[in-house]
Design brief:
The chain contains no helices and eleven strands. By secondary structure, the protein is mostly beta strands.
Length: about 110
């Protein structure tokens, strides 16, 4: 199993970023997927999840209405569109499938 995140970076408050997670080594369309983040000095926080066919999505209250999770099973890729970003969204963002994790991608929201 390999999960590789991309798309992070530095953005000003109110800005947007789109994270991608390229998956390989397993049948991507057979698994629910999630995004989890960890801010400096804090524990992991589940952010969002999507079921295997993309028909059901779930969000933490802290990101509801601002983030959108989606997946393209033909491309074996998971996405997280992040809008109206806040400084408190600053964290390492991880793609997750069961017990497998990506290496994480840094998102920094700062002016």
């Amino acid at each position: 199993v390999q999960l590789v995140e991309s798309g992070g970076g530095l953005v000003q408050p109110g800005g947007s970023l789109r994270l991608s997670c390229a998956a390989s080594g397993f049948t991507f369309g057979s698994y629910d997927m999630s995004w989890v983040r960890q801010a400096p000095g804090k524990g992991p926080e589940w952010v969002s999840g999507v079921n295997r066919d993309g028909g059901s999505t779930y969000y933490a209250d802290s990101v509801k209405g601002r983030f959108t999770i989606s997946r393209d099973n033909a491309k074996n890729t998971l996405y997280l569109q992040m809008n109206s970003l806040k400084p408190e969204d600053t964290a390492l963002y991880y793609c997750n499938m069961g017990g497998s994790w990506g290496q994480g991608i840094q998102v920094t929201v700062s002016s």
